[in-house]
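Lab notebook page, bench 4
Experiment: in silico fold of construct C2
Operator: M.H.
Input chain length: 280 residues
Purpose: comparison with the prior construct
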Amino acid sequence: MPSAKEILRKFTELKTLPHVAIKVTQLVNDDRSTMQDFEEIIKLDPVLVTRLLRLVNSPYFGLSQKVESISKAVVFAGMKQLRNLVAAEGLRGLFKGEDADFSAPKLWMHSATVAILSGMIAKRIFGKDGEDVFLAGIIHDIGLIVENQIAGEALREACKAYREGKGTLIECERNAIGADHAEVGYLLTKDWGLPQEVLGSIKSHHLAKQVKSVSSTASILQLAEFMAGKMQYWAIPGPIEPLPPELTEHVKEKMADYKIIIRDLPGEMVKAKELYESDE
């Protein structure tokens, strides 16, 4: 069976994150970067310009006046929001193709739901900036797309075993493929210049026992994925993995707040549709 690195080596020859997304991420990490630097990168891509203008003029921002210039749109969006928009735009095209055993579009919808839920949890429950956890949500299952392109038949075997309750998704992947999507996703993204907490959450979002803090990016991602599964926004249908005890206790303590998040999710998804919906 191929290792995660061998799977990734084949995938890298097919597709990687677009240069513009990596460049924007580098700018976010550079204290010397200016909004003009972001504008210079964004304006080179007409598709990104269109989506950015639609985003800042959408209910997601709720501005009273229409924004028509790239420079103003960049300022209103902010650095991390731009990074998330560019990452989503770059990754969306990978999530295509479906059959009875695996649906890439459903996986994209799951990723978008987890991203939005993660942002809501970060802001509403923990009073944190929700942009990094949103990015983690969008990217966390990218390893499944790699496996689908390189080891599609084995992935479908793993999905079938998972649906039949023969183990966790990670266990079924390792048995059928020799690697799992969390490891593959981490190896793919570790050179993209992402925040360390985002990278760590990609690698550990199925390792339920490793809870260092209920407010960490990894924990928020676990909470969001659990909630998305309960609402049937799942990546792959199958048994929903239980939350670790620390997160279960946390949810019980904050149940009223989480019920409000669930109530508000459909509206938030409509507001944020420019971040994840396809133009097709």
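Observations: The two ends are 37 Å apart (CA to CA). Residues 17-92 form one domain.
Next step: discuss at group meeting.
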